[in-house]
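Two quick folds needed for the group meeting slides. Do the first one here.
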Amino acid sequence: MGLENEFEVYIKELCKQIRNKDVHASIKLEISDHLQTLKEEALLAGLSEEKAIDQALARMGDVKLLGKQLNETHKAPMDIKTILPVMIASLFGLLAMYYLQFHSTFTEIQDMKVFNKSLIFYLLGILLMLSLSMFDYRKLLKFSKHLYAGTVLILLITVLFGVRVDGVPFLILGFANINFTEITPFLLVMSFAGIFHSWNWNDSRKSWLGVGILAFPILLLLTTSAIATSIICIIGCTAIMFGSRASLKQAIGFAAAASIWQIFNLLVLSQNYTSIDTKVIKNLGASDFIGNSLNLTPNLISEVHTDFIFTYIVYSFGWLSAIIAFVLIVFFIWRILSAAKSVNFNYGKMLVIGLAVTFASQIILSILTNLGLSPLPGVAMPFMSFGGSHILLEMIAVGLILSIFRRRKAADILWLDVKNNT
């Protein structure tokens, strides 16, 4: 065995003590560099190479003891502060679906098993979330362009050939009708985080190319009546530009240009808007702080299980329940934004910020619509509104966030270099 191989054996034994394999690459580089420094110090002191290596290993300490200490330092536990509000908010949504199906007249006018279907979606979503939390999100980086191309292609197919309901195209797959436009913001943010994590916005050619990449799916959405979705996409794209170090002028210019047509649409909607025939304000005003009714009048509000689930929670369970649900989601968004500061890998940081902004935009627009303050239809409440596609993708997004937080201390480019060389 060569003398230098003693270092390799030491490092290999050390890594065996560390369960979090995501930090092995960075630890190998760090320990190897430290051992080499100790060896050079011993050589300068006049020791032979063999004795210098022995002294370096001795100064590093017992491999098992050091390994145990590093294992404690680099543990990657589940982020309870992130997952807990999501689970409680999901329970709110599931409880609302239960009462809608079994304790309201909702099912008398629409034969929809909203609770049964929601239970399946939530269970599958939680399984995906937990599975992705264990998955190394960094492996998705190289597929960012593929995800973007796939999202744009499916969106194009949906816009051209989808069945339109109130102007919004649905993708028909035979076994299910999917509101693909609703989940588009999440998919775009996931792809943009990888495409723009090291983008050079100072290069004029790349700057225009970047604007084109961001704008194309928004232009597709502008051909539909999915106004809320396009607004969420515009906000998400602007956040990605800021996160990838575009100038303030570039980001504001993009947001302003992309918003012109939607501002016009909002003005048109506002002219014909009567606060959902005044039923929202009327019934919210009649709601108690604790709750006054679990029996929903059939003609109360259309789409109560999707767009207006927050209104149903207020009306049926009271303002206290609605406030708790709102606070939970706001805490979730605040939590992931604050924790994003500690993420070393820029791709992971941009992914967290993009998803947080998407969730935040969704909840703000949903609350405004439910309070009768916005004319925008079709805004699902995160984790609570009925719908399989958006629930599953929201849980996938949370799973990716948990995966990022588990690996927040992992190296940035060092990790990629090591992976590429092995």
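Then this one, please, same format:
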Amino acid sequence: MIRRRTLLTTALAVSTAIGLAACTDDDTGGGTTSDGGGASDGGGGDPALDAVTISEDVGKEPTVEFDAPLQISAADARIVVPGDGDAIAEGDMVIWRDIYVDASSGDTLQSWWQGGPAGGVQVTAEAIGEEAFAVFSTMTVGSRFAMAGWQTDQSGQARSLVQVGDVDRVVSTLRAKGDPGKPSGDFPEVTLDDDGAPAISGAPEGDAPTKTTREELILGKGDTTREGDFLTMHYTGWKWSDGSQFDSSWERGAPFSFVQGQGKVIAGWDENLLDLAVGSQVMLVVPADEAYGDQGELADETLIFVIDVLDAAHLAD
């Protein structure tokens, strides 16, 4: 997986990947867990959200009120206001606008309405836990949901949080769609399988570029990516040195998401996925000093990525 420079585990970045649905009291911020948000209390106390009052005006910043500190004995998730949009199905990638509140103090830690990033998650039991999956898979687009649980911050401390979000949309396509681009021919040819997953023709020839090079393979027709976007994409990566594949979101069966421009991914990604229409497919050839430098399994490697830009959720205007 394209490794972040820092784990997305602070409360101020939690919405970029999994939300509270996949957080438990022993979560390490790495993604999936064996538990998940659920409406049952499971921990010997009343469900945490029973003690929380949440405004129901979907689209406006939620007010989240409770007597702090809020005791969370088990993860809790529920629909606050049902939406009137399409039903959410297993495997859908949903995009939301949300607010995070510290359960111990009642302070707002992050809010899309106050300049925080949007967020989202793929609705699978593996990603969000069985109980939360049961809630999300009964939602419709336009719903307001709430979750209470834990997230691990960068110091390794589990923090209790309340998340309230409005489901804005389901990502409409899981592959690039648009007009053919005009690649230079300097790099390996890309072919696509029936589902859209890319392959390259082999190891490249000649010297690798010294700065990240971007080639547009498919020209999308959607909205344009901006700094601060919550980007959702599929990608595959290969080593320049021998053309071997080292990673692919396609093979994991789950799109990858991150907040653009916050240093959470390699510089070659952070700086070269702007001003692209959603639906585009690009090749990025990233030299080592804009990838992993001399660190880790990909030390000193120039990397080739083929990336399908599936969605770009903007900051609030």
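Slide caption for protein two: Residues 14-170 form a domain with the Chitinase A; domain 3 fold (CATH 3.10.50.40).
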